[in-house]
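Re: beginner question about structure tokens

> Can someone show what the tokenized structure looks like for a real chain? I only ever see the sequence side.

Sure, here's an example I had lying around. Input first:
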Amino acid sequence: MKGMRGMANAKKKKIRKAIARRAISVDKYQVNKAWRNIFVQAGIIK
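And the corresponding structure tokens:
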């Protein structure tokens, strides 16, 4: 029983880490997009 619970917790942690990693990459992507929009509006990048 103890071993099984440990496995489940490890799995949950892995999933949480994966979600966090995905959220971070999405955040970075959105920030980059936002900066590009700002530059485009300023006429720096056409």
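Each token stands for a local structural state, so reading them left to right follows the chain. Residues 1-46 form one domain.
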